[in-house]
Each structure stands twice: as C-alpha cells, then as structure tokens.
Fold these 3 entries.
Entry 1:
Amino acid sequence: MPMIDAAHLFIKVANNLKKGTINLHSPLEEFVVRKCGKDLAYIDNRKDAKEKYGFDLWGGINVGSLKKQGIDKGILYSDSQQFPDFMFKVKKQGQRYTDGSLIELKDSKGGSIASFNSTVPTKYKTLEEIDVVNGNYLVSRITTILDGKIALDENYSKFDRRCFYLIRTHKGSSKVKASIVDGSFFETVSKEHLFYQMFLKVLRQHLEKKKVKISPQTLKKVEKALSHITDQTIIAQSQIIEKASVRPRLRIMAEVHPEGNPHSKFYPKITEGSFNLILQSSPEMKELDREISAMVPEVEAFSIFHKRNGEHRVFQFKEETRLTEFLKIT
C-alpha cells in the first residue's frame, strides 16, 4: 500500500527540523510549501508561496492559456481565503484514486485549537463538497489544471479525499506543539448526525426559553423530520426566500472539545517541543511504522486512545532530538 501524502509531509518536515532549516515556530505555510510544493494541486495563498517561499504553483504552465480555464490574472498570485489551505495532487492506481488529501492550517498562541470557521472538520471531503462550502468553483478549477489528465475522469470531483489538519498550539512559547492530525480525531460522530442534532438542540433551547411545551411524541416526530437535514452541501447553499431581498446562507463553524484536542492534558504523550503525525489506527500502521522509522530513525511511534474515537497511532519527532544529535557530534 502506498504511503499517504500526509506521511510524506511529516517525514520531510521532521528531516528539516532535524537539519535546523525550519523550527517549530516557523510559519506553518513554510512547513508545507517549502517541503512539498511540487506535490500540491492547490495553494490558497499563492502570493506568499511565491514572494516569501520562492514557489510558483504555476511553474511550467503556460500562464497565458489559464484565462480560458477560468483563472484570471488577478487570481494567479492572490490569497483567495478559500477552504482548504492546501491540496495534494491526485494519483491513480488502476481504478483507485490515491493521495489528493486536504491540509488545513490551525495556528494558536494558546492551548486550544483555533476555531474552524469555514467548515466542520471531517475525515473525508469531496471536491464537490468543497465547492459548495466555498460558494464558488475556484478550488476545483485550480486543482483540475494542476492534476491534468486525471481531472478528466468522471469521478474526479466525487471521490473521498482524506482531510488532515496541521495544528499548532502555544505558538512562540516553549510549550509549542505541532501535529498533522487525521480528520478522524475530530469526526467522532458522522457529520450527518452532527448537523441534525445541532438543529434539534437549537429548537429545544428556543422552546425552553419561550416556555413552550411540546409532548414527547410530537418532539419525536420533529426529531425524525430534522434527521433528514444531513447534507452540508445543501445547508451551505444560499436560499431563495419568497419576498426576501436577501439570500440567507448558513456557514457552519466549529470549536474543538478539549477531549478532541490532541495537544490537551488528555493526551500527555503529545509532549511540548514535539512534531507529530496522528492517524487513526489500522492494519496498515505496522508497515507505516517501518517506513517512517527507516527514513527518520529518531521518530518514536506509540498509541494514544481518543476519549471518543478509539486508538490513534502517533509518530513523534522531538525538536530537542536535533540538539542532542548536535551535542553528540561536537
């Protein structure tokens, strides 16, 4: 089984932490752009990628032809502020898609993970979902160009892409921690269940505030009706309301519960001064253990148990390892 793109990113960043070319306080964008730029099909802040990190997403592409594909000059090197921050190029083995993962950055000076302001964190998302969440087709237009012939496949926009979140807490402090986190760490119940339960809870709070009493039987029927509100692509669409001069649109945001934060006190093995790859445990982990260990021998592998979603495998590189290696040499 091929190594996932998030693991490649982890190995490249760990090796560069080891060399000292970056550190845990370097910009998160630099972690990705400098180490995996050529593997990316989408960069949200293409301006900084070129000006700060010397990487041109459009390198090797005839820029003059891009306008015909919906990419105007103003878009080429802009900060689009769309979801996600990065997307890897798709590969294909036989009829199966591989890679194409999403990377969203979350940076915080405190111990909590920065809020998810554009979409609910999940284990998978399709390109179709991403377009609806963003309310436009910019991300899919750019990835289609960078992915080339594979993007012509019928299911290119419909297959499930893995979601990873590059999070950092205590930025600028000795308590700093950084991790590439599998979306499964956040999606402990299905997003479909989460959405309708949210609407149900809002209804119950309104009933309580207004002192409106509804029989358990009626509430059960309401819950059954709300259980059909499960599709974020529909929820996120602008709605046309009769006689209304505006089109309301719901943008669901999310905050992480402390038990869903791998940098919290619930997971003491995720130590200060460490860079981690956190994946939901699976039979393939043994092979990945061997591969990562061979490429970065200083990485320690161990398991943590999510309070709400079972075993996750952690690959940890401690920045202090670089200092220890330096002292050995001198």
Note: The CA atoms of residues 96 and 326 lie 44 Å apart.
Entry 2:
Amino acid sequence: MVLVGQLTEEQKDWLVGPPRQLVMGDNWYFNPVQDGSDQKNWIISQEEMEASEYPQNNFVKNLPLIEYVPQITEPLNI
C-alpha cells in the first residue's frame, strides 16, 4: 500500500500558484495530482511532504495520509 498526502482544493491552489511553490532548492516544485478515487482527491507524495524546506509550506508536513488510488485510463484507439 502506498500512502500519499491529501490536499484540500485551497492547499492545492496555493502550491500550484502563481507563484508556484518550491519543495526545496530552486527547481523542485510541488506537483499535486488527482488520484483515481471516486472523490478525485488532490494528493502529493510523501517525498514532497518530507523534503519541504520553506516555512510557508510547512502545512504539507502534517497532511493526512491516505491510500493512493491510481487513475485508470482507457487506451487510445489510433
């Protein structure tokens, strides 16, 4: 089982900006995605949560952890 951090819509909007928020350094940005659950949760990885080094983003260190549900995509018929 893979656990990920669950974001609210408002938290996701903060991370994607503008301005886009950095996890650390000057080129590692948060990358919230929607999972494949019925709720279409906004999530980030535990690696992003743990590596976050900027005080304005400390809230990500305390996000609730939920089980990752991958999105199921249909193959393209080309």
Note: The longest helix spans residues 9-16.
Entry 3:
Amino acid sequence: MTLMYDLRAMKVLFFPPDDSEDREILTVTIAEAIVLIENEKRRRSPRWQQYYLKHRDEELARRRAYRTAHKEQVREYNQQYYQTRKRQKSAVADRGMNTQEGLACST
C-alpha cells in the first residue's frame, strides 16, 4: 500500500490528488516521511515557535540543572506558592458563603 502526504493540504492520502500532474512526486520511506512532515510543520509555524522547538531541549536541561542545584529554594518557593493558592481559594469560598447567607436572611 502506498500512502502520499500532500504538503499543500498537510494530509495523508491513499491516492494521488487530481491535480498531482503539476506537482513533484517524491518516493521516501516512512521514517523519511515523518521527518519531512515534522520539518514542514516546523517551517509553517511562527518564528517564536520555531525558536522554542529548536531550543526546547536546552531550556529543559537548564531547568533541570537549576532545580538539582537549588533544591531547597525550589521547595520553599513551591510551599509558598501552594499555601498562597490555598488561602486564595478559601477566601473566595468564604465570600461565596457570605453572599448566600445574606440572601437567605433577606427572604
């Protein structure tokens, strides 16, 4: 079975499209086709996304190195972050309960 990938429509096709006479046909293996598709998707993405995808592994390695070198600071930051979130959620819930109590009393 032969599959075709249309770079214009970015779709996998079982049969060549009707207007394929004016297009260049390239025979590749599945592994090469996957690489071609990824490169085409990357080429069509915005510049910031291209940069991000290109440097993603470097950024993740930098973050991992920082986290291993500064475990105590990261732990302290996470504790403060989650405590703050917990306080905010409880404050919102308290405000909601007060509003409902006020409505119940006025009826």
Note: The beta strands are 4-6, 11-13.
